[in-house]
């Protein structure tokens, strides 16, 4: 490997570093030569999963590498992040750091010392959250310009949580982003609260929120006019927007592939679920546009785990959720099975 030109080594390392950072870190520990050869690809794909300490540590390491390369030690190259997976610390599965006592719990305290201790824990949580928000803005200020794929998890087990991380300012937008996988509500806003645009985005996965006025599909179509592949997950009812999409209409003018992931039953024997299943089957039968129905994800699988698995597959060259055709899945069970 020492005889290979740096340009070729860079391409090899880039192809290897598609696992969220593990290979990049490992290569940097092999030898000084390999560390230098792999430096530019070390952050090709990065996974930051659910803790504020991990985000702060990554920013420290990334800024250090940028300083090294800016000093001319890497032939003028700068490390860039092309693929990012981020599970928000207050919305991911790993929340042990921030399980502080809420203000509602403080009101229930009767002992003075316990009240003081609870108030102190809340203040510490608010301080940690403010620092995390700051780091989150700093992260996207550094990487948003070069990102090609982004998976952002801001919910748990399919239940959307929007506690404290909205709205993160991203003044540079995402000019190169091609694929966006969102689990929860989008946190990004532009300068002075303006919408963030995605001019190159072609593949978008969203949680379907028909009752959420802030997540209307026509707004996404205005911000991302090049969408060709759209996946809506956690579909719990057939709405007017879904009906428009199924008939070949809707706001996405270049859409040619529609994927729907229905929400699965919470428990066997539910009375509401068979009704949804029946309505959804009728909706599919009446659809004009071809619709690919993905197997629903059970609530036993954490959202973060499922999202990361799909992201790894896509970054590594797999199809992710974008299969060309899937017959009606056996996991899309019949009404009779549920009743």
TrEMBL record:
Name of the protein this chain belongs to: F-box domain-containing protein
Organism of origin: Lentinus brumalis
Lineage start: Eukaryota, Fungi, Dikarya, Basidiomycota, Agaricomycotina
């Amino acid at each position: 490997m020492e005889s290979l030109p740096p340009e070729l080594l860079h391409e090899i390392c880039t192809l290897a570093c598609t696992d969220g950072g593990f290979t990049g870190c490992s290569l940097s520990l092999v030898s000084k030569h390999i560390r230098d050869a792999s430096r530019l690809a070390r952050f090709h794909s990065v996974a930051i999963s659910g803790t504020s300490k991990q985000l702060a540590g990554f920013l420290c390491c990334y800024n250090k590498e940028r300083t090294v390369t800016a000093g001319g030690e890497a032939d003028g190259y700068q490390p860039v992040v092309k693929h990012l997976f981020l599970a928000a610390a207050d919305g991911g599965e790993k929340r042990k750091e921030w399980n502080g006592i809420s203000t509602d719990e403080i009101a229930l305290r009767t002992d003075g010392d316990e009240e003081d201790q609870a108030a102190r824990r809340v203040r510490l949580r608010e301080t940690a959250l403010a620092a995390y928000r700051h780091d989150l803005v700093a992260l996207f200020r550094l990487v948003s310009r070069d990102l090609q794929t982004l998976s952002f998890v801001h919910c748990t087990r399919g239940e959307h949580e929007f506690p404290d991380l909205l709205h993160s300012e991203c003044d540079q937008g995402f000019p190169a982003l091609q694929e966006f996988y969102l689990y929860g509500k989008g946190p990004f806003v532009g300068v002075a609260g303006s919408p963030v645009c995605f001019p190159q985005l072609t593949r978008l996965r969203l949680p379907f929120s028909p009752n959420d006025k802030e997540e209307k599909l026509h707004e996404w179509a205005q911000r991302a006019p090049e969408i060709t592949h759209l996946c809506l997950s956690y579909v719990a009812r057939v709405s007017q927007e879904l009906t428009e999409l199924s008939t070949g209409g809707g706001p996405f003018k270049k859409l040619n592939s529609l994927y729907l992931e229905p929400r699965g039953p919470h428990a066997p024997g539910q009375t509401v679920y068979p009704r949804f299943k029946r309505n959804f089957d009728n909706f599919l039968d009446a659809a004009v546009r071809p619709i690919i129905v993905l197997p629903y994800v059970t609530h036993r699988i954490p959202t973060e785990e499922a999202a990361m698995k799909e992201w790894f597959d896509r970054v590594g060259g797999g199809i992710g959720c974008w299969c060309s055709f899937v017959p009606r899945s056996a996991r899309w069970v019949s009404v009779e099975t549920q009743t």
